[in-house]
């Protein structure tokens, strides 16, 4: 039976790299994907396939689009499609550097590296603002049900996941200028205790992303990690699901397209890119690429 890539369910690592690629040579695409299939273990390297690759192979992954397009959004939600996505996970920056070198060599010339984001675990899973990330994440069997495709879908899709990934850039000067109360109200939680307010403002992040509020409920599995490059820093937001519908419901609420109320986070942070990819399941120790005709 197909299983999810193990890295999706595992706790976030101490260090990671999020790497995105563009398709450069479709002639060698099938051969290169065969190499990816054999090399990826789904744990140290989680792999995602973008719409560009799916279309180049003449295939169709139900519900997969290039990236977020929120009609009526009151804020800018960038969409930067990618062809191939890697989440390299490891204990040290040096090990990840060598992993990335190996992957880039293997993927050339079929794919060209578009972006590499160095990320890390901060304060036991908190965002760089000091607030805990992914507080309401599902666990165990619930996490599998939320984050992966299950029967009665086509066999080649079982165990796979849909991923929404966005890089958010924080404006720490603006955030630091807020009072403690203003910061807490932005999130709808106390930073120290992580306790949610009984009556948070309607713009609070917990209200905008309340997964039980929509009908049907909009649950996702978050595996976000902080990133930094020089004096720029923020959060690489990742949301895995059995489809992209739940994420789009939440982003619609955050962006103000639902009721005109914008998530308070936009006062100090913003997404600078965003894309959707499909993460195949594992079958007999390898990525299951049957849905791509491989």
From TrEMBL:
Transmembrane segments: none annotated. GO terms for molecular function: peroxidase activity. It comes from the Bacteria. Residues 126-282 form the Dyp-type peroxidase C-terminal domain. Keywords: Iron, Metal-binding, Oxidoreductase, Peroxidase. InterPro entries: Dimeric_a/b-barrel, Dyp_perox_C, Dyp_peroxidase. Its EC number is 1.11.1.-. Its cofactor is heme b. Pfam families: Dyp_perox_C. PANTHER family: DEFERROCHELATASE/PEROXIDASE, DYP-TYPE PEROXIDASE FAMILY PROTEIN. This is Dyp-type peroxidase. It comes from Paraperlucidibaca wandonensis. The lineage of its organism: Bacteria, Pseudomonadati, Pseudomonadota, Gammaproteobacteria, Moraxellales.
């Amino acid at each position: 039976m197909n299983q999810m890539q193990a890295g999706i369910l595992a706790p976030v690592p101490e260090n990671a790299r999020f790497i995105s690629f563009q398709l450069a040579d479709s002639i060698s695409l099938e051969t290169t994907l065969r190499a990816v299939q054999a090399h990826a273990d789904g744990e140290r390297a989680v792999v995602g396939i973008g719409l560009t690759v799916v279309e180049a192979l003449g295939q169709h992954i139900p519900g997969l689009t290039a990236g977020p397009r929120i009609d009526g959004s009151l804020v800018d939600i960038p969409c930067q499609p990618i062809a191939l996505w890697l989440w390299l996970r490891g204990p040290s920056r040096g090990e990840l550097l060598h992993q990335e070198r190996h992957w880039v060599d293997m993927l050339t010339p079929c794919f060209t590296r578009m972006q590499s984001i160095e990320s890390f675990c901060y304060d036991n899973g908190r965002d760089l603002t000091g607030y805990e990330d992914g507080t309401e994440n599902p666990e165990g069997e619930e996490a599998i049900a939320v984050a992966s495709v299950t029967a009665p879908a086509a066999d080649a899709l079982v165990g796979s996941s849909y991923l929404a990934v966005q890089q958010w850039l924080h404006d720490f000067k603006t955030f630091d200028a807020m009072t403690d109360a203003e910061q807490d109200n932005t999130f709808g939680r106390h930073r120290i205790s992580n306790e949610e307010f009984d009556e948070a403002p309607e713009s609070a992040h917990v209200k905008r992303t309340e997964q039980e509020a929509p009908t049907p409920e909009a649950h996702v599995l978050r595996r976000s990690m902080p990133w930094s490059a020089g004096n720029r820093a923020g959060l690489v937001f990742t949301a895995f699901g059995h489809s992209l519908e739940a994420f789009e419901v939440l982003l619609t609420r955050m962006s103000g397209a639902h009721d005109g109320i914008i998530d308070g986070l936009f006062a100090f942070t913003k997404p600078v890119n965003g894309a959707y990819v499909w993460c195949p399941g594992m079958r007999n120790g390898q990525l299951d690429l049957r849905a791509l005709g491989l």
